[in-house]
Amino acid sequence: MLDDLLGYCETERNWVLDTTMALARLESPTGDKAAVDRCGLELAQRMLAIGGVVNRLEQPEAGDHLRAEFGTGVGQVLLVGHFDTVWPVEQIDKMPLELRDGCLFGPGVLDMKGGIAIGMLAARALTEVTSCAGRVVMLWTSDEERGSVSSRSVIEREALQSDAVFVLEPGLPGGAVKTARKGCGEFRLRVHGVAAHAGVEPDRGSSAVHELAAQIVDLQRLRTVAPGVSLNVGVIAGGTRPNVVAEEASATVDIRVETAEEAERVEMLVRQRTTTVPGTRIEVEGAFSRPPLERTDAVSHLYHRARGIAARLGQELREGSTGGGSDGNFTAALGVPTLDGLGAVGAGAHALHEHIEVEALSWRAALLAALVAETHADAESLG
Length: 383
Known about the structure:
Helix 2 runs antiparallel to helix 3 and helix 5 (109-129) crosses helix 11. The protein has 2 domains: 2-181 and 292-381, 3-Layer(aba) Sandwich (Aminopeptidase), CATH 3.40.630.10; 183-290, Alpha-Beta Plaits, CATH 3.30.70.360. The protein has helices at 2-11, 13-25, 33-49, 91-94, 109-129, 152-159, 208-219, 260-271, 297-312, 328-333, 360-381, and strands at 53-57, 65-70, 76-82, 98-100, 103-105, 135-141, 164-167, 177-181, 183-192, 196-197, 230-238, 244-245, 248-257, 281-290, 319-322, 338-339, 346-347, 355-357. By secondary structure, it is an alpha+beta fold. The longest helix is centred in the C-terminal third of the chain and has 22 residues, at 360-381. The protein is built from 11 helices and 18 strands.
């Protein structure tokens, strides 16, 4: 079966490349609903054309999400990804789609329209080559790049009905899949002080800026809580004039952790702030919006299965971890077996040199198809 899957996917190389390019031409920045929906319409039509039962999940502000179902049966495998990108409309004028040295360059091709095309080709291969029983559900969302606020509940609902979740985000360099991702948190510290004339009555004031500076230094202690914690104070603001003791100051902090236990401990330490400048007070807002994707036994089992399939395809499939989050964080945290990074191979996500390796599209689709088929077979044997 595996040779037949690979052969089919190789004969459809032009199709998967054309699909990737068609989606990339329809630029879809997260915050532009009209643009995202234009891309979503093209994607929906292409899924209908290959036999999918497609439903548009309408959203008032974000782009509409798409759910497509292929096949029949009780068992369900979920393919997850997003068709929004970080690039603004007209970025393609600066980064035109270009085939060069075996690669396709262009905005969004790696993150992650190439992965969506791989998922669609895998669904076609399953239909044409195998007789596997079970359903493949594709959930393509429109707001992943801004935190999946409107799509999280949909993703989690579908995951809880699935035997496994395969995330079509791009692989790590060289095509390695992602068996661990850090959980992502964003916090905002607001410091309230007392304004005064900095030259005439400095002692009557309490500087929010000075207190914020002390807090930023103290926050670095979180790195010692656990070796996997990373922290970045990315945005700061405060004060009005050089000769006025600052009454207000704030900082936005990005924190990443490797485990749910670390997230709980770190969040408690962020919220339990003690002031150092008399007369100031601190408010803390925010939380961990994405739980960590931890390398559990279930994740490891899926990886070893995928590695074995890849080896039979003549490919080496490695694994790795990343500090970036994805929608796979949500599904894994529910205890649903999840394997991430099964999408395109390439480099330059969110960068001007974004590209995918064209040669890898076929074997990645064959790998995914075989992984789905074996997952269905396992679920069926367990009753």
